[in-house]
Amino acid sequence: MEEFKSGFISICGRTNVGKSTLINLLVGEKIAAIANKVQTTRTQIRGIVNRENSQIIFIDTPGIHKPKTKLNENMVELSWDAIQNCDVILFLIEATSTEVGRGDSRILEKIKESNKKCILIINKIDLVNKEQLAKLIDIYKNEYDFSAIIPISAIKSKYKEIILDEIEKNLNVGPAYYDKEDYTDQTLRQLAEETIREKALILLRDEVPHGIFVKVEKMKLKKTQKNERIYNIEAVIYCLKESHKGIIIGKKGEMLKRIGTLARRDMEENFGKKVNLKTWVKVKPDWINNERFLKSNSN
User: Fold this and answer.
1) Backbone angles phi, psi at 99, to 5 degrees
2) CB-based contacts of 123: which residues, under 8 Å, 6+ apart?
């Protein structure tokens, strides 16, 4: 009988390269916020894949970027820690790259320092031709002795098993750290916060900067008069300025209503139960540089 393997896999890369899309694909569940914005992921989000002979624990980290606030500093620090404390690294880059840019170069330095097994994932291959892709592969082959180089499109499910098989090859014999039914170590409260923040980022586009923080204040599972189980959730969306608050609420409360409706639908699908969601918007000036606020509200 084949020995059971397990390990922690850090997914690292620059901001907006597709890490959250990839982890959701590999886990088969939506556990990370996806928005076409930089720095969508702010914490280390763990996704768990249970296979017949292995348990793979993914750590989706905040994208590597130049920190300008205390929040950004904390995010980058989390990413560097994940590289040092994992068993295998998935290094995600974009197929449209023509060289090793400054951001990817910094990540490569950390990978070289760690001397860990590393699988290079080249995402968004649908945007380039075969010749461009071959040139990029040659460039990166000269940078590090990768365990494998896998070109993919993270929105296509056919790459899922290819990546998981390659990861399993590189794992050591080890125990299952989580129950077989688990697919994330996030609480439902954290998943609710991620969902609301994702919908806000998508709907608000560039109108409000990246200064949104969501905190679920109350979350209770109750039964309706029809004996249906329902989550009553109360959440606060924090923003930096009064002007941002007005934009998030929208004319006659329409924007906040849209955010809430989309978030509720996602939660009902993910939680498998009805959700009654109430949201408020509060101003918390300069929270992104407030160390006490960030620590008290970190996941």
Assistant:
1) -160, 175
2) 17, 18, 22, 92, 93, 94, 95, 152, 153, 154
Give residue-wise pLDDT tens across range 229-250: 899 999 999 988 888 899 999 9
Give pLDDT, residue 41.
40
**Largest Cα span, the chain:** 65
**Spatial contact of 218 and 192, defined as CB atoms under 8 Å apart:** no
Task: Please name which of 18, 265, 13, 53 lies closest in space to residue 176, comparing C-alpha atoms.
Answer: 53
Q: Which domains does the chain have, with CATH numbers?
A: 5-173 (3.40.50.300), 188-296 (3.30.300.20)
pLDDT tens digits, 201-220:
888 876 665 678 888 899 89
List pLDDT tens digits, range 34-73: 444 334 444 456 788 999 999 998 886 654 444 444 445 5
Burial class (CB in 10 A: 0-12, 13-18, 19+), 62: buried
Q: What is the pTM of this model?
A: 0.62
Phi-psi region of 124 (alpha: psi -120 to 50; beta: other; left: phi over 0): left
For residues 275 and 1, which has the higher predicted lDDT (pLDDT)? 275
227: buried, middle or exposed (CB in 10 Å: 19+, 13-18, 0-12)? exposed
